[in-house]
């Protein structure tokens, strides 16, 4: 079920507050806003919206049998990837970047943020369907550069359906096939990456695949492998 | 109690009045005082005991310590702080003390928290995991720094 509201501060903040208040929100429910006045990104960054773009959040209730919750990042990224790829057609134009960025023509056009609330996780997704807001120092894109802007409600329905499918695969078949598909759609092994770690340090190296839990493997110049669980990843030259 | 007491007397040709010493020792025990000194003419008697029972234990422990101690009993370097009651990280990731850069920390040492209050966040794979207080209490210790990597099960914060 997809509920659409004209305006809210943040669809994710709304769902987190409702969960914290004890509301039982069924999986498959999406809260979609026409406008967000306080869209959020990682580490307090804002997510800029624009008319016609998709901004929505959904809920996953975690059980002990599920793969580790952080791996939901890959589930959400694959859902967006599949929906976008179906519209773009050319697999070269759509690429995944660790852990849950989906790039269009090498540039950012969507944002995903996952937040836990007790035994649940709220997945917030923003996708530039019609417009690419100006972001300082960052090249952004929109699906409208590749053809007519997708209808927001149709896109929401496709994304909800694809997310449900990917979530079911994650639960039934585990993380490994999810990561294999993610790797096939990501920048190739050996790609030059630099990672801004939360502590402020920056490390550069070559993409060396993923750990079984999804952590990023970065091969440094001295041959050692650095395993990264959190950080901003930049594709060098990308 | 005799081992707890030291008896000193001063005075020429003094003979120890054992009865008086015993009486004074009884006064010590009854009153909880640690030292009594009485003076009569050129005779002065002081009866004292060291603080409570700890010295007795030391006296008893010393002969044992003098024997070859078992290796495990050797005095060790300062013991690791006991973090057994600390809240531990449920995953490998990065810890944040504040909701976003520049914002106030969720909690600081000395804060009163209630069950369910967010204490910090651990990020893994761009999933934000709030770590909440399991029960009401006071923040005793914060064992991590903002934006530092944390291992699975690493003690992060103590609420007691």
Automatic annotation (TrEMBL), chain A:
Under which main EC class is this enzyme filed? ligase
Could you list this entry's UniProt keywords, alphabetically sorted.
ATP-binding, Biotin, Ligase, Nucleotide-binding
The organism's lineage is: Bacteria, Pseudomonadati, Pseudomonadota, Alphaproteobacteria, Sphingomonadales
Which EC number(s) does UniProt give?
Answer: 6.3.4.15
Q: Which reaction does it catalyse?
A: biotin + L-lysyl-[protein] + ATP = N(6)-biotinyl-L-lysyl-[protein] + AMP + diphosphate + H(+)
Keyword DNA-binding in the entry? The reply is no
What the entry lists under InterPro entries is as follows: aa-tRNA-synth_II/BPL/LPL, Biotin_CoA_COase_ligase, BPL_C, BPL_LPL_catalytic, Transcriptional_repressor_C
Please give the superkingdom of this protein's source: Bacteria
Protein's recorded name: biotin--[biotin carboxyl-carrier protein] ligase
The protein's matches in Pfam families, at most eight in alphabetical order, are given as: BPL_C (PF02237), BPL_LplA_LipB (PF03099)
NCBIfam families, from UniProt?
A: birA_ligase
Q: Does the keyword Nucleotide-binding apply?
A: yes
> In this protein, which residues make up the domain named BPL/LPL catalytic?
3-171
Q: Under the GO molecular function aspect, what terms does this record hold?
A: ATP binding; biotin--[biotin carboxyl-carrier protein] ligase activity
Q: Name one GO cellular component term.
A: cytoplasm
From TrEMBL, chain B:
Q: Does the keyword Chloroplast apply?
A: no
Instruction: Tell me which residues make up the Lipoyl-binding domain.
Output: 84-160
GO terms for biological process, alphabetical: fatty acid biosynthetic process
Q: InterPro entries in the record, alphabetically? A: AcCoA_biotinCC, Biotin_BS, Biotin_Carboxyl_Carrier/Decarb, Biotin_lipoyl, Single_hybrid_motif
Its GO CC terms? Answer: acetyl-CoA carboxylase complex
Q: Pathway listed for it?
A: Lipid metabolism; fatty acid biosynthesis
Q: Which gene encodes it?
A: accB
Put simply, this protein is called: Biotin carboxyl carrier protein of acetyl-CoA carboxylase
Q: What does this protein do?
A: This protein is a component of the acetyl coenzyme A carboxylase complex; first, biotin carboxylase catalyzes the carboxylation of the carrier protein and then the transcarboxylase transfers the carboxyl group to form malonyl-CoA.
Mind telling me which CDD domains this protein's record contains? biotinyl_domain
Q: What keywords sit in the KW lines?
A: Biotin, Fatty acid biosynthesis, Fatty acid metabolism, Lipid biosynthesis, Lipid metabolism
UniProt GO MF annotations: acetyl-CoA carboxylase activity
Please give the residue ranges the record annotates as the region Disordered: 63-86
């Amino acid at each position: 079920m997809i509920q659409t509201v004209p305006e809210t501060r943040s669809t994710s903040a709304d769902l987190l507050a409702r969960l914290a208040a004890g509301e039982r929100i069924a999986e498959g429910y999406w809260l979609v806003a026409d406008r967000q006045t306080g869209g959020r990104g990682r580490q307090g960054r804002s997510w800029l919206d624009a008319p016609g773009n998709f901004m929505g959040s959904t809920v996953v209730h975690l059980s002990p049998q599920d793969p580790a919750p952080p791996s939901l990042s890959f589930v959400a990224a694959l859902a967006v990837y599949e929906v976008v790829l179906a519209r773009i057609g050319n697999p070269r134009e759509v690429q995944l970047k660790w852990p849950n960025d989906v790039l269009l023509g090498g540039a950012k056009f969507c944002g995903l943020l996952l937040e836990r609330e007790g035994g649940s996780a709220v997945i917030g997704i923003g996708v530039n369907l019609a417009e690419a807001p100006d972001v300082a120092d960052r090249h952004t894109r929109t699906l409208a550069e590749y053809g007519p802007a997708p209808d927001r409600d149709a896109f929401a329905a496709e994304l909800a359906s694809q997310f449900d499918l990917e979530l079911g695969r994650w639960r039934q078949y585990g993380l490994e096939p999810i990561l294999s598909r993610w790797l096939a759609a990501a920048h190739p092994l050996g790609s030059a990456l630099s990672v801004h770690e939360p502590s402020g340090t920056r490390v550069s190296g070559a993409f060396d695949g993923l750990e079984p839990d999804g952590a990023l493997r970065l091969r440094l110049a001295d041959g050692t492998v650095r395993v990264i669980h959190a950080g901003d990843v930049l594709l060098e030259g990308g | 109690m005799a081992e707890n007491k030291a008896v000193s007397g001063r005075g020429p040709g003094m003979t120890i009045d054992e009865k008086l010493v015993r009486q004074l020792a009884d006064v010590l025990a009854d009153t909880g005082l640690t030292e009594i000194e009485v003076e009569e003419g050129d005779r002065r008697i002081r009866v004292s005991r060291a603080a409570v029972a700890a010295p007795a234990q030391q006296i008893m422990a010393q002969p044992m310590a003098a024997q070859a101690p078992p290796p495990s009993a050797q005095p060790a370097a300062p013991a690791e702080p006991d973090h057994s009651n600390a809240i531990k990280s449920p995953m490998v990731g990065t810890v944040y003390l504040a909701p976003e850069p520049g914002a106030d920390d969720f909690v600081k040492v000395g804060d009163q928290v209630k069950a369910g209050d967010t204490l910090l966040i651990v990020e893994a794979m761009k999933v934000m995991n709030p770590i909440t207080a399991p029960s009401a209490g006071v923040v005793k210790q914060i064992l991590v720094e903002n934006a530092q990597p944390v291992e699975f099960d690493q003690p992060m914060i103590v609420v007691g």
